[in-house]
Specification:
The protein is built from six helices and four strands. The protein is of the alpha+beta class.
């Protein structure tokens, strides 16, 4: 094989591994000091927190609507998801949601559920030999 083709295969393999690392990083559980703490208003904590994107999804299902409005308007969700979990794609999606009472919870739930689904569908390419790539799906 010419060197250019080998290099291209190596780059392709590295990209696949990078996607997998990104999904693992975003879906990880963080320490208590990095958790998201829910408030209804300034100085009025709910007592609820989330340490992972899955945990966050569960809290969104039951947290008071006032808390959702409070955090979305302040961009707290977007900042935590982007800066702590490292998921700029979901942060941008949440930033586009208009803070209204009618279907706010559903919009946030759909965005987070869809993103978790995307991240869990990550595929990984492994090279068994230089001529035989094997594609394996990571079970969820």
């Amino acid at each position: 094989m010419p060197p250019k083709i080998r290099k291209k295969k190596k780059l392709q393999k590295d990209r696949s591994l990078e996607v997998n690392r990104e999904a693992i990083r975003i879906l990880r559980t963080v320490r208590d000091e990095e958790a998201f703490y829910f408030y209804e208003a300034l100085g009025k904590p709910t007592g609820e927190s989330a340490r992972s994107l899955s945990d966050f999804l569960g809290k969104i299902k039951s947290i008071k609507l006032e808390s959702l409005l409070f955090h979305l308007q302040r961009k707290d969700f977007q900042n935590w998801i982007n800066k702590t979990l490292g998921d700029s794609k979901l942060a941008i999606k949440l930033d586009k949601i208009q803070p209204s009472r009618s279907d706010l919870r559903v919009k946030i739930l759909v965005a987070v559920e869809n993103r978790i689904g995307e991240l869990k569908e990550t595929r990984l390419t492994l090279l068994v030999s230089e001529d035989l790539p094997v594609v394996s799906s990571i079970p969820t």
